[in-house]
Amino acid sequence: MSSGTSGGTARSTVRPHSETARRGPVRTFLRTLDGVTIDAAYDPGSVVYDTGRPSPGHLSDLAIVVAHGFTGDLERPHVRRVAGVLRQYGAVVTFSFRGHGASGGRSTVGDREVHDLAAAVRWARELGHTRVATVGFSMGGSVVLRHAAAHEEGADTDAVVSVSAPARWYYRGTAPMRRLHWLVTRPEGRLLGRYGLRTRIHHRDWDPVPASPVESVPLIAPTPLLIVHGDQDGYFPVDHPRMLAEAAPDHAELWLEPGMGHAEHASGDALLARIGEWVAVRAG
């Protein structure tokens, strides 16, 4: 799927780093390079890591950008819970992908969403953070991989975490993925997505088809990469994370989590804390 583009640059309402630290969380709209308005929020966090030791009450040099899964948005309780755990390890930027929540445009289910993530990463850099990591779930997990592979100037990342992501496109090997394809490809499915799931889905097919996650992974090096997947994931079986890890043997780690299901809902606070610790150590 793809959507039309227009000129423009990433735009946001930002404050200097120290002023943001005093005033606390910020809510704004960002404009992507292809002209879509993205709802975004910033939380300066509660802890800064210095040589691995947390110091309460200081603004972190690290910002963690959270990329939610399909049909999520920054207001969803499961996304807010993820952000709440990760704020212990640095500042957190959350945003709603295009077609989700209060953001503009229509979802292209992982294609043009790389522009949305890039706008959020640029915002974190503008806010003064010298280290920026991305943590993505399901669709967002595929987006963080494709975004990191681009090494885009001004929107580059220092560490990447992909949770419950597919390795390849058009996978229909599980019942949940067959239902998702019906939702995306059928007019009645897109109607259900719009009014039942608050997700506006683009009607056009991808043209051209973007590089798949497994094709993107080798290009991420030397940026540290963590791949997290549950062995009980109902959407993507364990051959997906193994394919991703095998595509990047020198710079990727694979955590195959026993008993874990899919994406944010299946990511417990203990796992999220482990991810936060990994990011704090490996980002930069």
Topology, please?
Layout: H1 17-23, E1 26-31, E2 37-43, E3 47-50, E4 53-56, E5 62-67, H2 77-86, E6 91-95, H3 113-126, E7 131-137, H4 139-150, E8 159-163, H5 175-185, H6 187-196, H7 213-216, E9 225-230, H8 239-246, E10 252-257, H9 263-266, H10 269-282
Parallel strand pairs: 5-6, 5-7, 7-8, 8-9, 9-10
Antiparallel strand pairs: 1-2, 2-6, 3-4
Helix pairs in contact: 2-10, 3-4, 5-6
Describe what this molecule looks like in 3D.
This protein is an alpha/beta fold. 51% of the residues are buried. The strands form 2 sheets. Strands 1-2-6-5-7-8-9-10 form an 8-stranded mixed β-sheet, with helices on both faces. The protein is built from 10 helices and 10 strands. The protein has a single domain, classed as 3-Layer(aba) Sandwich (Rossmann fold), CATH 3.40.50.1820. It has helices spanning 17-23, 77-86, 113-126, 139-150, 175-185, 187-196, 213-216, 239-246, 263-266, 269-282, and strands at 26-31, 37-43, 47-50, 53-56, 62-67, 91-95, 131-137, 159-163, 225-230, 252-257. Residues 1-22 and 48-58 have low confidence and may be disordered. Belongs to the AB hydrolase superfamily. FUS2 hydrolase family. This is Alpha/beta hydrolase.
Q: What's a quick, concise take on this entry?
A:
Residues 63-165 form the AB hydrolase-1 domain. Helices cover 33% and strands 20% of the residues.
